[in-house]
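Researcher: Going back to the complex we discussed earlier. I've cleaned up the inputs and rechecked each line, so this should be the final set. Can you rerun the prediction on the complete assembly and write out the structure?
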Amino acid sequence: MERAKEKRLSSARGERGAKLLFGLCAAFSIVAVFAIILFVLYRSIPAFREIGVFNFLFGKIWKPDWESKVTAGKLEYKDIFGIAPMIVTSLAVTLGAVLLGSVFGVFTAVFLSFYCPERLGRAFARLEKIPMLRTIPLKGFVQQIINLLASIPSIILGFFGLVVIVPIIRDISPNGLGVGVLSAVLVLAIMITPTIASLSKNALEAVPREYFEGSLGLGNTKNQTVFRVMLPAAKSGIMSAIILGVGRAVGETMAVMFVIGATPGKFPTSLFLPVSSLTTTIVQEMGYVSPGSIHESALIATGFILLLFVLLINLVLNFTKKEKLGGDTVFHKKLSQAQKERKGEGYVRVYKQKGGIQTALKWASVAFALTIVFTLIYLVGFILVKGIPYLTPRFLFGESKNGAPMLAPAFVSTLMIVFMTLLIALPLGIGAAIYLNEYSKKGSKFVKVVRLFIDTLSGVPSIVFGLFGMIFFCGICKLDYSLFAGSFTMVLIVLPTVIRSTEESLKAVPDSMREGSLALGSSKVRTIFKVVLPQAIGGIVTSVILSVGRIVGESAALIYTAGSTIKMPSGYSGTGSTFAVMMYRFQVEPVKGLGVNAMYATAVVLLVIVAFLNLLVSLVQKHAGKPKEKTKKEKER
Amino acid sequence: MKKTLAMVLALAAVGGMVSFTGCGKEKTTVTISGSTSVQPLMEELASAYEEAHGGISIEVNGGGSGVGISDALLGKNDFGMSSRELKPTEVGLTARRLATDGIALVVNQACAIDGVTADEVYNLYANGVPIGSITAGIAREASSGTRGAFDELVKNSEGKDLTELEAFADGTQTQNSTGNVLTQIATKGNTNLLGYVSLGSLDETVKALKYDGVEPTVQNIEAGIYRLSRPFNLVVKSGKTLSREAQAFFDYLFTDEAQEIVESKGYIRVS
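Model: Rerun complete. Updated structure for the full complex:
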């Protein structure tokens, strides 16, 4: 008896310990966000103090090479570090990209949700006769294309912008330059369109089917229904998709760096003017600063201002998300209000005309979606055609030497970073997801705060992660440029993905399984590890693949933490470059005899990896996701 | 639970293996970082040295002159490379000249212009005054050694140099490496751009211009008539004792053998 009691007591202690452990995992995101804000701010303070916050924010001149003149007593710091033109540029380029990206994204989402035929045969009657083509799953294909476009590393988009978009702009621009505001807007628009498209599609599909049927039942045409009923009903979801796009665009570094012209101290007064944004200035000059100089601190302070923008955007996003539920009820209210006003008439068809505008909008959505699809096919095709001839076995696996860099070290470095990152991020992320889903009570304040911070963490631009990693892991932890520092920085970047993806699949596990296990006398911890987690393996695997994708494509955060050597890494405390960093290195220091072709070849490797990972995700979702969806649906019934 | 434990152990084992394989076959490494202008030359010198001395690995990283200097100060490298003289703020370091380099003004092969004057170059970068078909200049990022030297050396008729400018003329774009300037200039149809690169990095994809009527050649720089030139320096923390391997390589750089490589690559030797 005594023994049993003791055992129960100790297991109760174990239970409490487990809960605490999971809670700590969940709280890690909060710590991480605060650490990022505090350390970046801490290193910004010298700049703010010497320059003055007002002069820094509103100054128009950016001349770091004048710093020695300050020491000579000719000038003051406030005269040489002003980021006003960069702030305006970042905002202007983001605005342009989001306007374009949301038009393309939302119309593509409409096309996918309402107009895209499941199979190719449905699209054209003539094709119906050709059995081979008829069965091509068109909708799935377009969806895959959008997913692939969403996961293309930003350095490849920037490179594509440089070799394809810039020459086109050069031909039409009056000053014959090509690089500048417009090119940056276009590249960023391509980057954020798929994000806006998939999130808007989710929002559209979340609108109750009854709205659609009801509207049709009232005699509206399909086009009227789509554009006057469904789209307004999904308004808040689409808004959060667009705000998320704003966050991604304002923090993007690599894609912009290639095409914007990067000249600081210029306001974007013309579409064709080379200018510099907050992110480009950081990435261009960080490598050149002397340690402890005001220039270094001013660049970190630039990162801090960027971080503030992103935090603000995140808060707005959080606000619109809260509105989401309300949004639909508002729509309900409007409906009932309309019913009341027309006393007895009910809600009748108000659009008398045949809906010419809506028909035009339908074709617009088809056109926008096709443009996206062709852009991606062109991008991939272009890079493959240009890059494959240079993808020799020697370039892939040969020994990388001074003056003759090869890709072999990138395989090793990438694998090492992937391994170390997952080793830390997986337990941490899964632990947090377990806490959020298994231990939290409904409406718990702590959980709300944790969720807010996870969202915030996922919105932090990678260049800011890079700065933080450089300050904290390389500097304060004395890791220097090393694969350790790079991996630890990547942990912060992939953590939100791991948590979210795991949590989704935990949610899909039916409660009856948990209850069954508990009823059989298993402890909660045992239930979680033996019953719940095995069921959620699909989500965990997905999170692993998504994380690998993030790591493979990341460059801005790794350059300042893991270095950009071309040599084989000597261990975790040595430096190493992943494929994307190699590509950056080839851009900064073109390879003799290969030049830009080394970038094409590396881009091919990156694209192949990304496409393969995308394929894996859809396979995992097909095999592990489906049965669960069924059980979820059964539960609802 | 046993399964989880086994998995964790297996992971730890693999992790240990990965981190130790590196240490096992480690070669003696000399780390050098800094100016991207010096880097191509240093890479040539390093591979020549590596071939002659087995078992030694020389890691040449870029980053820029500032990085080379800061890394030297912080002990992150064995020694740094800089393509400019030390600034008054950069104390506690000793610089030794490895070579002298010219800065060549370059245009597209199809560009009709053969030579420019200092005044024309100044006015292009400062005020956007076109030179024939050339309407815009390409600058390097702030604190690049090449840019620092270029901005100081290009003076207009009143003796003002480019460092005095608050900002370059509209249309000036900034590229963050010698290689990128070359790529931009060499792109077909870009006859409206002027750029500047290290003389040693000059290749046949672009056309080098006469500056005030003088060809950018090693002879003209040695004779002192081509005025766009600057030093390639090695930077060591004052009072630091280099490792045996690093000191050996450092000494090698000033031998006749190494200086012949310097010369053969289009730079001006110091000894």
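Model: Worth noting: The longest strand of chain B covers residues 93-108.
Researcher: Good, that matches what I expected from the previous run.
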